[in-house]
Write a structure and sequence with these properties.
This protein has no helices and six strands. Strands 1-5-4 form a three-stranded antiparallel β-sheet, with no helix packed on it. It has a three-stranded antiparallel β-sheet with strand order 3-2-6, with no helix packed on it. The protein is elongated and about 45 Å long.
Length: 93
């Protein structure tokens, strides 16, 4: 789970994602990049469970079923990124 406090002005909107990587540190396939618009990996090992409110902020949840991760996946990377960087005054261009 990734959560952040939205009560402060200027706080970026965050998105959570997960990547299943091979030993070469490359994503196994396009389907192995899981985020809010692609919510499940092909074998179902990784799922983006959506966004919720925490009362003072927001959260996004990602679930990883370790028993279901394919053998060719050497790494599971959990990442956070700005959803809309062009609207954030703290992002340099």
């Amino acid at each position: 789970m990734l959560s952040w406090d939205e009560s402060e002005e200027g706080v970026a909107d965050i998105g959570a994602s997960a990547l299943l990587l091979g030993a070469d540190r490359r994503v196994l396939s396009d389907g192995h990049l899981v985020f809010s618009n692609q919510t499940t990996s092909p074998e179902g090992a990784v799922r983006h469970l959506g966004r919720g409110s925490t009362g003072i902020g927001a959260e996004e949840r990602v679930s990883v079923g370790l028993d279901e991760v394919p053998d060719e996946a050497a790494f599971v990377v959990l990442a956070a990124s700005e959803d809309e960087p062009e609207t954030n005054p703290y992002t340099s261009t």
